[in-house]
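Recap from last week: sequence in, structure out.
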Amino acid sequence: MADNKKPLGDELDTKEFICGKVAGGQSQHLSQSVADQFGISRQSAQKHIKQLIKEGVLEKSGQTKGVSYKLAIIAEEEKIYQLIPGITEDLPWRDFVRPLLGDLPSNIISICQYGFTEMFNNAIEHSNGNTVLVSVQLTAYNVKMWVSDDGIGIFRKIAKDFNLDDERHAIFELAKGKLTSDPARHSGEGIFFTSRMFDRFGILSDKLIFTHTSHDWLFEEEKPINKGTSVVMEINTSSTRTTKSIFEEYATIDHPGFYKTIIPLKLAKYGDENMVSRSQAKRVLTRVEKFTEVVLDFKDVNEIGQGFADEIFRVFAQEHPNVHLMSVNTNESVDWMIKRAKATGDSGQPSLFEDV
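Predicted structure tokens:
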């Protein structure tokens, strides 16, 4: 059996692991988790934890089996701003948020500034609200920022502006990017790029929660969570990510605009339904012609129908030859259906499974 334990490196390795566990709410049995991860004794693991407590990175509460840990808070403040005529997004950043971040690395400051000002600007121009609550929490491990307005709610507004019959469709369109009801003044890039700059990004509105970590997720609650829209942004203070690196991932010198998108197909599903119909495919393809490179992510999509595959990989592909379609995270069944659709398009002959 292969040994999956990570070799013990410098103190930064253990600090990142321990703080990551605590930040994720996994502080129970912490010393055992560290011991298992690095192949050391629980006593040695406990020494690393105690050192972080001594340094003021962690705080401990409880005893023996009831012991728990949390990240020590360096700064935590909130402030309410009135959405009055003349307010701009740079004012709360400059006067409130930036001073709380202290001497964090310049790449983290840049990411925080981009994300915060984009989200606050959205509240100003799109929420139809009266106030915005800004919250900032800084620890030795991460930065969290909240921008919460009391307006109409982002998913409801998008559904209304674009005549969508379900607010979940609004989340799906947001995930694609380039979504704006005012193209003369906005590119529709803010949420897309912000979600990819931060380690964790979330939007909460009414009963719906949209989150992006390494993938996009949609959750639905039974009762409304809040009034208006709340945006949560979190990033590890030791991250080497930069705003430039994220922009370059979706734009090049040859394509200076926002040319690439990743579409999480599971967000287009309702419950446990499969992607089978042409109408579902057309929903997926809405506004896709705006991009030149489109990555279709089939993670958690177990099956697709012939009509769905044909509409995307034959009909759309032939009508839009300048759009490069790629599929990722396909299982054997999905991959087979995609290959059938592409083969039909290449041969020009109707598929054996064509729905007529």
